[in-house]
# Entry
Amino acid sequence: MKLPEPIIIDPQSVPSLRWGIIGPGRIAETFVAATQKHTSQRFIAVASRTTGRAQEFASKFNIPKTFANYQDLVADEEIDAVYISSHMSDHFEHAMLAINAGKSILVEKPITYLPEEAEQIFAAARQAKVLAMEAMWTRYLPQSTILRQLLESGDLGKPELLTASFCADNRAVERLWKPGGGGIVFDMGIYPIAIAQEILGEPSSIAATGKVRPDGMDEESYSLLNYESGARASLTISGIATLPMLASCSFENAVISLGEPFFVPSSISLKTKDFYPEQTTWVDESGIAGHEGLSYQATWFAKYLSEGKLESEVHTHAQTVANIRTAFEITKQIGAKPF
# Structure
């Protein structure tokens, strides 16, 4: 069994969309910087309700238009797509605002806290015939395209057991510890949840324990997921402890392991199941490192929009909702209240 070649879309082969930005915070800075560096996408407008913030952001990234409210931004006829990176609790309102103005949207992950709200966003987008994508950027990384090809080939056999971990001491990141601004399961844990969903599907049962602060914000969780196929998954998520950020899955015929951190451009290995395994590894040597990998999703978004797609083919609306449903269930079981 061999590793296939990654599928990488040439950024120059897709239309250069004109983007507007709602919520010019830290992740928006990272996304815009990476996208300007590695793609042909253009950012032409930014809106913030904080006085001076839009102007500051626009000056830093040479964005020509600024708005003091979001209504004026989504009404701008020159904008092709809106990137929404406001507080998580505001995603639903801002997504619906953009959709109702006829704009296609890329919404930071997770798109909402509640699965019902995500379903409403996607239903509205389909009715308006606009593209709506959650910014689950890991699905568009080169190693993810290799993973999908392996899964689609059937050569791996049935999945057996998956482990995934995202544990990093993020106590200094204030928004993660404020209701509506994140939460460890929803903000960090969505990555292990998403890789489990991509490989195994939606779980049939979840058993979770964890640590929760007196104010209801979750610190840590340990979840066991079972699937109708008989497969199992173990997810470890922590905002206070730091451990290797790895993901691996054992199949009937082989083992797949993603390099650390598994959710940024890294590597993918194919191993035999022997005690001393034979191993083949693909390493990302593109030079697009760390969170610069956010740029890949912008290129895929432009491709989908040019093709008239209303959802991502590799991170569908149904998959997005399934991940939120899992995150919601984990927080519910451990007694967390992140929103």
Notes: The chain has a mean pLDDT of 97. The radius of gyration is 20 Å.
